[in-house]
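Pilot study result, target chain (480 residues):
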Amino acid sequence: MSNYQVTIGVEVHIELKTKTKCFSGAANTFAATPNSQTSAIDCGYPGTMPVLNQAVVVAAVKLAHALKMEIDSLLRFDRKNYFYSDLPKGYQITQYYHPFGRDGQLKIVINDQPFLVEFERVHIEEDTAKQIHEGDATFLDYNRAGIPLLELVTKPIFTSSEQVVAYIKALRKLLVALDISDADMSQGSLRCDLNISLKQPDAKVLGTKVEVKNLNSLHNITLAVDDEITRQTKLLDAKTKIVSQTRRFDEKTKQTVLMREKTSIVDYKYFREPNILPIQLDQRWINQIIADMPFLPDQIVNYLKTQYHLSDAEINILLDREDLRLMFELIVKDNNMTKATINFLLGPVLKYLSQNNINNINDTRINYRHLSELIKLISQEKVNNKQSQKILATIFTSNENNPQQLLAIWDVKVISNETEIKPIIEQLFQEYPLRVEEYFNNPVRANKFFMGQIMKITKGQVNPKLAQALIDKVIVGYKK
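Predicted structure:
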């Protein structure tokens, strides 16, 4: 806790998932071999000319409109000049004087209370190269140089890490719904800079601003904000002047550390980008982009609640995973089994994707009809849990056979006939009388033993619910 008033502004860099880069035709994909997706334009070779990617402007229109911003239909670009190893041209093409959008807002909820996030601007710019530090050496990967970014800047309205985290969560859901960015912080497609200042509660002017750059997780945002508040509080208590700085968060020490003294705007020597003339956007074209926009998060929430009666927890996951949301709707239209489908998607399916490091279900060979059929088989108790896991793994990697065909090929079935299961149970009771006695003192342990034996005898093909019910039913006759 601090006795001073905390003020936080947030700058978010959003990597767009366009096919190509902002001003060149080089591919825009993640985790490619270093320096394999570059062009002469990205590397700043003499004589090269940038050409604006139209898909970047479409994404900017969508975000600006979703945030209720005033859109500037006259596109103008500027040069931000500075010399650093990750900037091959010695300057960055951005929008300083005339941002694409101004004065927006986003309504979010924090602890069941409404909170209005207010924005100053959103502008288009290109990303820099990526630096990899190993010992005393620094390596440069120019794949990231030229990737299109939208920089979104809030007004200084936040007062705690909790508010900032709630905003980033809401923003991520919006970006996914708009389908303009993966918004995956772990992959760097959503990076956060924080401007933090403290002042006396009665002071009319904000305190000295300190920037904490490149935060890549919600956890680190929380730790960085809290540590910086603590650091500045100690300085103010000691009557020490706070210096305007750029800092970073050290994950090992869990503290912010100095990168450099804050550079003034004058040092960037902004001027108009001479190689890109002003571009007047057709208002009818802008209106068409807006008309074709997908549902926004609030609309999706209302739709999922009214149409499918999903819980808030289920909806929150689907908001983060558009691929699963669309798959869910396809399956439910096919099998009309809402509850069974959502449980299976957010259970075994999500677990499989996570264990195999698959970020999007569409990157697999899965066919939604095969998933739908598997869910039906499970609900009809025609496959047990072990069998369903084997089928799931198979249909994720091959769409040649549907679940029914796989069961036939493997000669797999579920024994759900009481006349087949009961003799097995009675034989086990005779072979293990001490386990029968144990049942009446420790039923959980005894049940686990008998179920294990039944699965072994039937090679895992028994209906577990029926087997368990028969154990409880038959064993009553053995009680002394």
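One observation from the pilot: Residues 31 and 43 are 19 Å apart (CA to CA). A full batch analysis is planned for the follow-on phase.
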